[in-house]
Design brief:
Chain A is 40% helix and 18% strand. Chain A has 16 helices and 14 strands. Chain B has two domains: 200 residues, 2-Layer Sandwich (Cytochrome Bc1 Complex, Chain A, domain 1), CATH 3.30.830.10; 207 residues, Cytochrome Bc1 Complex, Chain A, domain 1. Chain B has 18 helices and 13 strands. In chain B, strands 9-10-8-11-7-12-13 form a seven-stranded mixed β-sheet, with helices on both faces. In chain B, strands 1-2-6-3-5-4 form a six-stranded mixed β-sheet. The chains are: A alpha+beta (472), B alpha+beta (525).
């Protein structure tokens, strides 16, 4: 749908600017300035513009800097078949310029004002853009962000799209196609998610889909997903609250109210039986076994409990599998266990790297250790000491994460995105404290007694020529 | 609704928004949650285009930057303490630094510092690995030993209330090290396996080999750790190595919610009886000039080639450091730099490309590089050379200089944005023996850099020949065109040398099975 011609705005907020430069939510924003004295909390105020843009302000004048951090609630999980990789390609296009700022000057402008931490990232659930600027230049950052939210399509052209398709395909080569275990990542996704599921081709996407992206795709995606009502802007740092609100109003307040795009949740069907896949890897020198189960979605029921299971199995030194395979039996070079949730569903992963040399016996030893250690965990759960270690570790990391303003901005965004509550930290820690060894045992039984996939990366330097350029 | 004094702004906005004429009523706007609108009304929406959007906003006056202060004092055992206090978070982060690293490894035993550092990290005398790591996790603290090229570092990270527990564990690490034979042998095998892993992909091969090509394998910065050198290391080497970690002359960096008196008290208690001289710093000789050579490592089937091009550079305390910094920034220092804008944004050959000076205590080297699509490897080498040559032989634009000069000045506050960053900024200064107030004069020198100074720095510190060129990639695709570059002596007269992934000279790879004709036009998908 073309933008630009004036008819009438949907929303009716603009006239209200006269009396309410920022329309706050009905409960007068969420004022959290003095709500708690917990050492974990980040003080913030959240409100919403008439057009639906959500704003979170966190004031901290201790250094003359402002972290500007905007999340669009769209990611590769929202892609449709044939368009894999598009959310991320689109993120690249957001740096190519917009009507008023000009073409390909986003980075230059920020460089000139001494900005740091300038980037954008895409995952399955959201796309974020951020920069930390000296506080006297806060408005320039808002100018840049508002211009690409409002006027990206004005400068959109074939040349820049073709260029960024090349760049993103280079990114895929550099980070997936040309490195050890890049093929494994695709194989794991292919084992877990059926054709048509948006998680199947990872956020980076297929080369052929990237190649076929068109200007119409960019326009359509922008108009559907990059509307003010699908974004959350967080400012953290050195500003006065009233001043920040006025600036947000100036740059974003007159944007129209557009429909909040509906996300389609795509559930991951369970595995019917165990799957085993061998992948030849021209760039790995060490064989690697990647066991993976479906897991709970991010912050869903069981998510925190499975983090404990991962710690009990995979922590350095005291993790059950790590100790047994790496330190005692010495059949593994490393063991890495992690639980990872996304918006629709998650995964539980055990990744075992083997030493060089003959591996068939070691594979069996690993499989045996996994069977036995998982059986023990499922039968008895973790020990109280294992659970306690995990809890104090997470609590500490929450405190350490408070020092950087961009870290604070991200935490507010992160919780806001997944729970609707930027101040979810306290709830999160309550959930963490409420965990029991029995709860961990129950979650482990629910998820880890299900069928799993095993992807084996086999080093194959000689086979490299055949594999060269092979695309998923 | 909050009352705010923003009427002038609101009026200004409203007066230029033509949609005021649209009658829509006001009720919906108070909805706390955005409502999906009806699709049919979405057909045409108005995006305002107020005149103020056309211009970059005027910045507010620049604020003064309060640089947090640093306290320096000495402990009774001779440790030099650098303390940056903060009172906002209940955390303490410490780094013991010794002048000890790979540069001090005995001849033929490159890897001692790295392996022995890992061994000390692993366990202590009283605690085996599992209990040592569990003890840290029980308190949510981290105590780690890491040895790099020139510095060995013992890090201690704890919430303030857990600091005593962390210090006990750290004291155990240096005063009663574990040094178990079983741990040592396991770690030595693992070290060799990780080295093997680094021979698999183009980027890890290139970054492993490049310093040895710049400095030479005999130079302390150019020594290469290999399976053979690791095999020469014994547990006895680590026992000797561990004895060097003594307090007198070691530097202790601290940032956190802790005072100088508390530091003294904590160390008196937890490190009681710790004595002795820390190692003296090893002297580093300058790099010897080399004949420009193109080195090639074959990784069949590689979708991209890793390119690195460079040569030795100036010392860190050179008088024209700021001009060199701005020059390198224009050439390759950021996204906006010439090399990146050329290879990525113009040509679309790479995900990113950069060039910069890497400083150590004993000098620096310049390196420009990128991971590029295989079929454009030689073209990318030529483009990087063009950019280096253009930097040397023409003036930068006023715009480029302004961008980097303003940016460097305005970017200084971010280096002191919080106590931890402040500590790291100061620590970097002392590594180079620069004074702690260096940033004051640095700002002044940055301001005086002009176009001529940048040009001068380029002519002085970028070489017109005798570059070390390293390309790691798929020989079948890239070799013919690289040999053409070598024949032209684009980078010097040293020709081309073929290396294996450990840097050993090799005969030219041959591709007879596939026939010769395929070479140049077999672009990979």
């Amino acid at each position: 749908m073309p933008r630009g011609r004036l008819l009438c705005t949907l929303g009716v907020g603009l006239p209200l600017l006269l009396i309410a430069p920022h329309a706050v939510t009905a409960n007068e924003g969420d004022e959290h300035a003095d709500s708690s004295d917990s050492e974990f909390d980040i003080k913030y105020e959240r409100y919403m513009l008439d057009n639906g843009l959500e704003v979170i302000l966190h004031r901290d004048p201790s250094a003359p800097l402002v972290a500007v951090n905007i999340w669009y609630h769209v990611g590769s999980g929202d892609e449709v078949p044939g368009k894999s990789g598009f959310a991320h390609l689109f993120e690249h296009m957001m740096f190519q310029g917009a009507k008023h700022i000009g073409e390909d000057v986003h980075f230059d402008t920020l460089r000139e004002i001494g900005a740091s931490s300038v980037n954008g990232t895409t995952n399955s659930d959201r796309t974020n853009y951020f920069e930390t600027v000296p506080s006297h230049e806060i408005e320039t950052a808002l100018w840049l962000e508002s211009d690409r939210m409002g006027y990206l399509l004005d400068l959109l052209n074939d040349k820049s799209l073709e260029n960024q398709i090349d760049v993103v395909r280079n990114e895929r080569r550099q980070r997936y196609d040309n490195v050890p275990y890049g093929r494994e990542r695709f194989a794991v996704a292919a084992a877990l998610y059926p054709e048509g599921h948006p998680y199947r081709y990872l956020t980076i996407g297929k080369h052929e889909d990237l190649e076929s992206a068109s200007l119409d795709d960019v326009r359509g995606f922008f108009e559907r997903w990059y509307v003010p009502s699908n974004a959350t802007l967080t400012l953290a740092g050195d500003f006065e609250i009233a001043e920040a609100k006025a600036l947000v109003d100036k740059w974003f307040g007159s944007f129209p109210k557009l429909p909040v795009p509906e996300r389609v949740v795509v559930p991951a069907p369970p595995l019917a039986a165990d799957v085993e896949v061998e992948v030849k890897d021209p760039f790995a020198r060490l064989e690697r076994l990647h066991y993976v189960w479906h897991g709970p979605k991010m912050l869903g029921e069981g998510d925190l409990a499975l983090d404990v299971a991962a710690a009990a199995l995979g922590s350095e030194g005291w993790g059950r599998l790590t100790k047994r395979l790496v330190d005692d039996e010495k059949v593994a070079q490393s063991v890495w266990v992690y639980n990872s949730g996304s918006e629709f569903s998650g995964t539980f992963n055990i990744v075992v790297t083997l030493p060089p040399g003959e591996t068939s016996e070691k594979r069996e030893q690993v499989a045996k250790a996994l069977d036995e250690e998982l059986a023990k965990l499922l039968a008895k759960g973790p020990s109280q000491a294992e659970l306690d270690r995990h809890v104090i570790g997470v609590e500490s990391s929450f405190i350490w994460g408070l020092e950087e303003i961009n870290g604070r901005a991200n935490r507010l965004q992160w919780f806001n995105h997944y729970t609707g509550d930027p101040g979810y930290t306290s709830t999160y820690l309550e959930r963490l404290d409420a965990l029991t060894t029995d709860a961990v045992k129950a979650a482990a039984n629910e998820w880890l007694s299900q069928p799993h996939a095993l992807v084996i990366s086999v080093p194959d330097p000689e086979g490299a020529t055949q594999a060269g350029g092979q695309d998923q | 609704m909050k009352i705010r004094s923003l009427l002038p702004l609101a009026l200004a906005l409203a007066s230029i928004v033509a949609v005021l004429a649209c009658d829509g009523g006001g009720s919906e706007t108070q909805n706390p949650e955005p409502q999906p609108a009806q699709p049919e009304t979405q057909a045409e929406v108005e995006w305002p285009d107020e005149p103020f959007r056309a211009e970059r906003p005027e910045p507010k006056p620049i604020k003064d930057v309060p640089i947090p202060s640093i306290e320096t004092f000495e402990l009774d055992n001779g440790v030099e303490v650098y303390l940056v206090q903060q009172q906002t978070l209940p955390t303490v982060l410490m780094y013991f630094n010794w002048d000890l690293g790979e540069v001090d490894d005995p001849k033929g035993k490159t890897g001692v510092a790295s392996l022995c550092g890992d061994l000390l990290d692993e366990a202590t005398g009283p605690k085996d690995k599992a209990s040592f790591k569990a003890a840290q996790a029980d308190h949510g603290v981290r105590v780690g030993m890491y040895s790099g090229n020139e510095i060995t570092s013992l890090s201690i990270r704890a919430l303030r209330k857990e600091l005593p527990a962390a210090l006990d564990l750290a004291a155990e690490m240096v005063m009663k090290p574990g040094l178990r034979k079983d741990d040592f042998e396991r770690l030595r095998e693992q070290e060799k396996a990780w080295l093997e892993q680094r021979k698999g992909s183009v980027t890890s091969i290139a970054y492993r080999l490049f310093p040895s090509l710049i400095w030479g394998t005999k130079h302390k910065y150019g020594k290469l750790e290999t399976a053979e050198s690791v095999d020469q290391i014994s547990l006895g080497d680590c026992q000797k190595w561990a004895k060097k970690l003594k307090p007198d002359g070691a530097r202790l960096w601290i940032v956190g919610k802790i005072s100088a008196d508390e530091v003294k008290a904590e160390f008196g208690e937890h490190f009681a009886g710790w004595k002795g001289r820390s190692p003296k710093r090893t002297k580093i000789s300058p790099a010897k000039p080399a004949k420009g050579t193109l080195f090639f490592v074959d990784v069949p089937g590689s979708a991209q080639s890793q390119i690195l091009i460079g040569h030795p550079g100036p010392v860190r305390d050179a008088e024209d450091y700021e001009a060199t910094q701005l020059m390198a920034a224009i050439l390759g220092g950021s996204f906006s730099s010439r090399i990146n804008m050329n290879l990525r944004e113009d040509k679309g050959w790479a995900y990113g490309a950069r060039g910069n000076f890497s400083y150590s205590r004993g000098g620096s080297y310049f390196a420009a590089g990128s991971s590029v699509r295989s079929d454009v490897t030689a073209d990318a080498v030529r483009e990087i050379f063009k950019e280096i040559e253009r930097m040397r032989t023409t003036d930068p634009s006023a715009q480029e200089l302004a961008r980097e000069q303003q940016g460097a000045l305005l970017g200084i506050p971010a280096e002191f944005a919080n106590a931890t960053r402040t500590m790291f900024s100061f620590r970097a200064l002392t590594y180079y023996d620069l004074p702690l107030d260096w940033h004051q004069s640095h700002q002044d020198r940055l301001r005086t850099v002009d176009i001529a100074a940048v040009r001068e720095a380029a002519q002085t510190h970028l070489q017109d020949e005798d570059h070390v060129v390293l390309v790691v990639g798929d020989g079948r695709t890239v070799l013919d065109s690289l040999e053409a570059i070598a024949a032209e002596e684009l980078f010097g007269s040293g020709g081309i040398q073929y290396l294996d992934s450990d840097g050993n000279p090799q005969p030219r790879p041959s591709y007879e099975d596939e026939g010769e004709g395929e070479g140049d036009d077999s672009a990979k998908p």
